[in-house]
Structure formats: C-alpha cells, structure tokens
Amino acid sequence: MSAYNVMAMSPFIAGAVAVVAIMLGIAVRRSHRASAAATVAAFALMLACIPVAAGVAPRQVTPLVVIDAYALFWLAIIFGAGMATAILARDYLRVRGGQPEEFYLLLLISCIGAGAMVCSRHFASFYLGLEVMTIPLYGMISYICSGKRGVEAGLKYLILAGAASAFLLFGAALIFSEAGTLDFVGMACATVNYSGSLVVLAGLAMVLVGVGFKLSLAPFHLWTPDVYEGAPAPVTAFMATVSKGAVLAALLRYFSTVSPDTFMSLRTAFSLAAAASMIAGNLLALRQTNVKRILACSSIAHAGYVAVAFLALGDIAAHAVAYYFAAYFAATLGAFGVITLLSANGDLREHDAMEDYRGLFHTRPVLAAVLALMLLSLAGVPLTAGFLGKVYVFMAGIRAGLWWQTGVLVFASAVGLVYYLRIIAVMTATPKDGDHACEVLLPAVSSAAKGLLAALTLAVLWMGIYPAPLLRIIEGIHLSAH
Amino acid sequence: MNLLFVISFVCLAAGMVGGGLVFSFLVAPHRPGAIKNTPYECGEQPIGQAWIQFNVGYYLFGLMFLVFDVEAAFLYPWAVAFRQMGTVGLIEAGLFILVLLVGLAYAWKKGVLEWV
Amino acid sequence: MTLTAIILFPLLGGVLAWAAGWKSAASARRIALIAAALQCLLVAALALRLRLAPLAGTASPWLAELRMPWIPQIGASFHLAADGLSMAMLLLTAFLGLVAVLVSEGASGRNGGGLHLCLLSALAAVSGVFLAADLLLFFVFFEAMLVPVYFLIILWGDLREDRFAAALKFFLFTQASGLVMLVAMLVLSFLNARATGQLTLDALELRGVPLAGAVALLLPLGFFLAFAVKLPMVPLHSWQPVTYAAIPASGGIILSGVMAKVGAYGLLRFVLPLFPAASSQLAPWAMVLALAGILYGAFAAFAQTDLRRFIAYSSINHLGFVVLGIFSMNGLGQRGAFALMVAHGCSVAGLFVLAGVMERDGGSRDMARLGGLWAAAPRLGAFALLLIMATLGLPGLANFVGEFLVLLGTFQASPRIAVLAALSTGLSAAYALRFMQRIFFGPRRGAEPAADLSGRQAVAALLLVASLLLLGLFPGTMLQAVNGVLP
Q: pTM here?
C-alpha cells in the first residue's frame, strides 16, 4: 500500500471517512442542515481528490481496481450527480419531517459503490461495487415510508434487483468454470479462447441479463416505471443517472477487451435488446399521464440509444458513451430537479401528475423554462447537450457499421419527441382555475437548489454550444491501454 | 465435457430433492391430526396466531448481533495470519473495528439498545 | 465578424424585447421593430459592401467568410460564408422579418415580449441557415428554427385551431426528416474520412467524395427528404395546412416566406453540388413530384374555404414551380427558381398580412362567410388585388419572372412536363380570382372585419407591394446576385 496507491484511491478514502464522520455527527446531534451541508462538502472533497488521483493515473491498485482516465471521468460525473442529488434531497426532505439525516449516508455509500464499479477490473470488485450501490438504494427508494407507493417500489426493486444479481453471479460462475479467473482481462481471454463453449456463452448471456436489468433494457425494463414513480423524486434522479451510468461504464470496460466478432449471437442479442428498448420505451411513454413515468420510459429508451453506441465497442464507444451520459446526466438531473422542487411542497404530495404541470409557464416561468430546456435536451434538439450526444451515438453507429440499429434510433428519436413536446405543451396551456395556480406557487426553493438548476442549465447549453473543451478530455480516454 | 458435469450435477441435485420427497410420500404412514399441524415452538404450546406484528426492536437487535457476529468471523482469519500481516494488518483491523464501533455508537444514541 | 453579427443581432434584439416585455408590451414591440429595421440595414450594408468589393483573385467561391474551430473532434467548424445566393436570401429574411414585426399581434396582452423573442430568434436561426457552410452548423440552425416556431404556435396560435396537434405535427415532420439528413451528413463525412483520412464536415471539402452502390443514392435521398419536408413537396406536405392555420400571422410570414425557402436553398446549396451525379439521376423523378405538387396545390387551393388553408395550398402550388426549376438542372430554370423563391416570399407574406387583418378582433377567415369587403375596406382590397395578381403570375410583378424562367428551363429539360406546368398556370388564375371574388366582391355576408389596414399594416403592405413591383419590373439586379453561384 504505497503512498501512490493512497493518492489513487483518495476519492474513495475521502468518501468513506466522510460517511463515518457524518454518522458520528448524527449520533451526537441531529441536524438536517448540518448533515446535508456536510454531504455536499464531502462530495466536493471527493471531487477535489480526483485531480490528486489523476496525478498518479493510470495506476492499478491491487488486482481488483484500476484508476485511469476513464474511471476518473466517470467518478467525476458520478460524484457530481451525487452532489446534485444531495442538494435536491435537502429541499425535498425538509418539508417532509421525520428523520431525514440518514438519507445522506445512504446516498454517499451508494455513490462510493458506483465509483467502485467504474474502477473495477475484476468481477469481485465489480460485484462488490454493484451491491454497495444497490443496497442503500432500497432504503432510499422507500425512505418516505408514510405513503404506500414508496414501500411498494422499494420492495419491487429489492426482489427484482436480487434476482438480477443472482443472474449476474451465476453467469460469472459459469464463465469462471471455464476461464478459471474472475479478472476482466482473463475472463475476456477465456471468452475468446472458448468461443465455441456453450457454458461461456450461457454465462455471458446471464451477465447481460443481470446488467440489462440494471440498465432497464427491454425486455428487463418492466420494473422501471413503477419504481421510478414510487421513489422520491431526487432518488429517481439518482437511479436514472448514477445507477445506470456506472453499470454501463463497467460493462464497457469488460467488453472492450473482447474482439467484436467473438460472439456474433451475443451481439445480435444485445442489438435486439437495444432496439426493443428504444421502441418499447418510447411507445410506453406515449401512453403515460405521469411525468415521472414518462421520464422513466424515456430512460428506457435512452438506455437503448446508448446501447447502440456501446455496440461499437472500443474507444469510439467509450467516447460516445461518456459524452452521451454526461449530457444525459445533466438533463435528467435538471428535469427531476424541477419535479423535486415542485414536490418540495407543503402538501407532501409528489407533483408528478400531468395536471400539476398545466400552465407552469404562467405560474412559475423560470422552473418551466428549465424543465423545457431539459426535455428538449433529452429529445436531442440542437443547441442543447443532448443533440451532440445523439450525433456522437450516430457517429459510433456509423463507424461500426450498425446500420439497422441506427435506423431504429432515428425512428425512435422521432417518436420520443411526441411525449417531450406534450409536457412542454401542457406547461404552456392556461391553468384551469385560479386557485390551482396558487397551490403550485407555494414551494420555496432554497438558494442552493436555485444555484444547482442554474449550473445544470448552463452545463446543458455549454455542452450543446461549445463542447470542444469537454470533448478534449473525453478524447483523452483510452480503454484499450490495459 | 464440462457441460456434462454441470448437467449431471443438475440431475443429481434434482434427483436428491425430488427423490426424497417422492420416497417419503410413498413410504411414510399418512395419519394427519390437529396436534401435528401446530407449529413447533421448542415443545411449548403455541398461543394465538402466528401472524402477529413483532416489535421492530427484534430486527434491530438481530442486525446488531449479525454485525458483530460477522465481525468476529472476519477477525479469526486475521488473528491466524497476524504475524504475516504485520503492522499494516493491525492498523487495518483496527480501522475495521473502529468503523463498527462508530456504528454501535450511532445505534446506541438512536436508542436501539433500550428495550421497551 | 459581420456575419456573426447578422446572426447574433436579432437574437440580442429579441432578448431585449423580451426583457422590456415584462414592463410594457408596447415598448417590447418598439424595441423589436428597431432591431428588425437595423437588421435590414445591416444586411443591406453588407450586401452593398460585398457587391462593391468581392474577394478578387481568390479561388474561394465565397464573397465573405469566417472560419473558426468549433468541434474539431468530429470535424465540425464554425464556418460562416456568404455568396450571392445567401446574401439574397439574407436580404429576404431581414426584410420579411421587418414586415412580420410590423404586423405582429404582440401589442396587447401578456408576454408580448415573448412573441417578439420567438420571432427574432427564428430570424436569427434562419440567417444562420443561410450563412452556414459547415454541414453540422447548418443542421444546428436548421433544427434550431423549429423551437421558436413551435412556441409561437402553442403560445400565440389561433385558439380556434388545435394548436398543439399542429405544432407537434410540424415539429415531428421536420425533426424526423432532419434526423435522416443528419445521419446522411455523418455517413458522408465518414466516407470522406475513410477515403482521404481527413475528418471534416465542411460542405466545400465534402464535394467529390467517391460514392458507389446503394449509398450513392441513399445519401442524396436523405438530404432530399429533409428539404422536401421543409418546402413541403407533395407527399410530405400534410403538416403544412394545419400549421399555417394555427400559427399567428406574424409567425406565418416567417414560416412561409423564409423557412419554406430553406428547403429550396438546401437543394441548391447542398444536394446539387454534393451529389451531382445522383441529382441528375433523380431529377426526372423530382420533376414529376414537383408537377404533382403544382397540380395538387392548385386543385386543393381552389377547393378551400378557409383563408389560411388557401394560403397553404397555393404555396404548395408555387413551391412546386421552384422545385421544377431547380431540377431542370440548367441555369435558366434554377435562376427562375431563385427568382420565384424571392417573389413567393414577398407575395405569401402579403397573404399572411391580409389574413392577420381579417382575423383581427376575432374576425372570421371562412371564405363562405365573407363577401363584399371592397366597399368597407378599399385599401385592403387594393392590396389583396395586387397580391392576387402577383400570385397568378401577372407580367410586371415578381412572380411572373420566376415562373417564366422556370418554364423556359423546364422546357429544355422536358417539354412534356413544361407544357403541363404551363397549362396549370391557368388553374392558378382560377383559384386566385375565385379567392378575390369571394372575399371582396359580391354581397356582404356579415363576418367581415370592420376596419381597414391600420397604420403599421399599411406600411407593411406598402413595403411588400413596392418590392413585388420592383422585383417584377427590374429583375436583373436580383438575378445578377446569383451569377457566380448557379450555372
């Protein structure tokens, strides 16, 4: 355990120390304000440790973990998303009473787990990270236990995520039985050497089932609308961004060592899952009347889009996926951020029905404009981050010759426009009666949340108008170096 | 070849479970009675319904027990390899126990240890 | 730098108008008007300067250009460039922008500033479209036009129409076809990178990429699809009547007068130079489609009783001529198409001004309920008569020049189509005169608006009439602009 290793792992060490310290703090004296502030500070510290780690990257720490540019990029956006979630959660939990302090512990632990996943180069650390990320999520989803929906969503997620983990483990065990190692590189070599083996194929397929669940790729997407709807809005934001991104990042690292032609059948299966997610997600969203459910369905579709880039494999895919997720993180956090702030209301109700958004442009023009921008970015309209994300995915698809997948992507994006625009249209409609408008006006937005939304808005515009600086960082990422 | 092992394992496992059930169904005498249907409570007569709400304190106690139980399970191998692990090992084990102790302090402060 | 200013200036004016709109709608309108007028002056000054001092002695086909790195990682640069064609289109844009602001409805009511922000940012985006020489930059502006128009329709659209459905249909058609074009652009860039090793999206550098097989046909079709929807050409036109019916008149001026021309501009600027071989291969089919549009538009316009839908179908009729001219693949026809683009921009803007006057204060636009308006509103009647004469292609007015040249060019390419198209001008006369008769002559039916052209509207009408006459009587100046651009 040299000093360099400590430096490389410093973001994690900072996070872990912060968790213990905040827990002690809660034990000494409960203060929601202090917990939230300490959590935001902890995320800031973890982000500040990333340049320190970058100084010694790329570096392999134990056979389990590797800290390289790819991992650090993901750590940065995961911790950024965690910080945003903490700021949103404060406004959301403040009006709801109870004991909100422990929420932040769960959030920090979950982020550390997600971070461990993107740094993993071994199945053990990957699985450990996955569980450390997922288990706090159960608590976070049902954190507001006064309503039925939260508990139901948490239970649903618990059971299904458990089943998915079992698939993942079984798959890894099958690959292990042939490869004799759980190291990603070793496993990848084994998959090449034993490409005719049914056991390895079955193992890989099971790994994909487990991962497909986490990514909510069709046909493993059915839980998504229910859980996203039942979870508190900031938690939904967290799930839609961090828990998806981290899994895909780890999966990409694993598959980037495999030559693309090794498993044609697997590739076909993944292509079909991507296409099915794009189509199913968008078509499901058309029929929803709840904004959170619409965004859940849209996140299914986005998993499909990004899976197309993923199929290109290698550095092209790494760049496309990284940029796409950076854009998607900003827009999704922004959109759920607006939902959160509207729900941070005296009536303790989730403001996620379509009716709650009627006339928002008239009652809360700034929030409505932010939400509209985020939705346009998710739809991939130019001058927003989402547009260049789409361009990147298209380019990856074209370079890898994924013609029909790109075709489905075009079709699905067009369909997706319908429901994003529907929300915007509802927001511009005139409110039905006067008192409803007053009810929406009530929530008081903290200055931290205002600053967050402003930052996300700027990020979405900046990434859409002048993304070259960010792309320089992203193009510096090389996956195949290991 | 390997697949053959897996398949034979699956068959063997299914055979053991299924065989046992079928065998006991065929061989065992079938004399049902009210006493036989009562749940086993260490020889005591059960009182009331089994579907009652347990005090949530049970679960918290259970969790606290589990934490320190598993801690012990982790400390045994460390104790065995104590000399090889050296000072770093000692510090690491110390940190491990410290984190758990912080958790205990937190639980204590939260009132988990107070019964009723 | 001036080129960037042309794009940013209307945007700045829009933001200022929006900010002023929180206090008073009238001041918002005043600011927007000043911005639009200054934009006209800016573009005119640039056009004059470029005509006086073109870049002599360089190989570059551009009169002025600005090139900066933008997203080098995907080969896109911030490349603005102007030649005669784009300058002419910019002038048209700025001029119709001024007309639109002059007759805008935002004088009263809440958020008048927002309306002007939308109008002016649409102008900025269209100006960007006419200046972009990089494919990705072009696409960004091409799609960015949609957003302000979308908000114009859903926020200030006609309450009697299903605004949301119309806006959605408009956005969906354009965005879906636009995505197909985007993929075609990226494939083209990829093929170029594979052939030359240079990653670029510059429209000039992508000329002459070797294409073979299905790609050689699919890529131009991808571009063609997007522009055909924008125009719109006939099988893809179903968004247009509903959109024209729902949009506020000022937005309609920009949508029909300028944005529809973007489709034609795109065909001239990108499809023909990038894919010369495929274009001549596709030309006969495109001409048949154009002819179908001409005939369909004429018949459908004849059958309309709704003023706005009449405008929509008559536009389809005229834009059919534009496409016919472009795909005649000779200089004569393409010059005609260009002249008709400008002329139709002015005449259709006039029709929207007319529609705005009729609908003011909840007036009806159902032709079955209108009649005998001439007596009540003689100024409006005279204005409408001149517009109708331009629409049916009376010599001496701008549209005649364009249609005549298009027919000449088409005759060289395909006499049969030219004859059919020439015969269809009779149909134009029929629907145009019927329109005039129903609204302005005959007995009054009670739904007529009370007032004549107001001050601002009269100014706008005068500007349009003057331009139609000037372009019709002295078409040479306009046609000179594209001398270096078209064959």
A: 0.91
Q: Does B105 touch chain A (CB under 8 A)?
A: yes
CB distance C325 to C333 below 8 Å: yes
Distance to chain C for A339, nearest Cα, Å: 22
A439 touches chain B (CB under 8 A): no
Question: What CATH number was assigned to the domain covering residues B2-110?
Answer: 1.20.58
Disruptive mutation site among A383, A406, A427, A474 for chain C (greatest number of C CBs within 10 Å)? A383
Average pLDDT, chain C: 88
Least CA distance to A25: which residue of chain B?
B106
A384-413 pLDDT tens trace: 999 999 999 999 999 888 899 999 999 999
B 26-85: CB under 8 A from A: none
Q: Do C182 and A394 touch (CB under 8 A)?
A: yes
Chain B partners within 8 Å of A31 (Cβ) = none
Which residue do the tokens 């086909």 mark?
C61
Query: Among all residues of chain B, which has the CA nearest to that of A177?
Result: B2
Segments making up each domain of chain C, as ranges: 276-487
Does the beta carbon of B89 lie under 8 angstroms from any beta carbon of chain A?
no
Closest-CA residue in chain A for C193?
A399
Q: How far is B35 from chain A (nearest CA, A)?
A: 35
A173 in contact with B at a CB cutoff of 8 Å?
A: no
From chain A, the residues in CB contact with B2 under 8 A are: 177-178, 197, 199
pLDDT, tens digit, 9 for 90 and up, residues A266-318? 888 889 999 999 999 999 999 899 999 999 999 999 999 999 998 888 888 88
Candidates B3, B99, B109; nearest CB to A20: B99
pLDDT by position in tens, chain A (length 482): 588 999 999 999 999 999 999 999 998 888 999 999 999 999 999 999 999 999 988 888 888 999 999 999 999 999 999 999 999 999 999 888 788 999 999 999 999 999 999 999 999 999 999 999 999 999 999 998 777 888 899 999 999 999 999 999 999 998 888 888 888 888 877 777 776 778 888 888 898 899 999 999 988 999 999 999 999 999 999 999 999 999 999 988 888 776 666 667 788 888 999 999 999 999 999 989 999 999 999 999 999 999 999 888 888 888 999 999 999 999 999 999 999 998 887 777 888 888 888 888 888 888 999 999 999 999 999 999 999 999 999 999 998 888 999 999 999 999 999 999 999 999 988 766 554 544 544 566 788 999 999 999 999 999 999 999 999 999 888 875 44
Answer whether B106 sits within 8 Å of A24, measured CB to CB.
Answer: yes
Domain-wise residue ranges, chain B: 2-110
Select from B3, B88, B102 the Cβ nearest to the Cβ of A199: B3
Mean pLDDT over each residue of chain A, to the nearest integer: 89
State the ipTM, two decimals.
Answer: 0.91
**Which residues on C lie below 8 Å from A424 (Cβ)?**
154
Query: Is some CB atom of chain B closer than 8 A to the CB atom of A20?
Result: yes
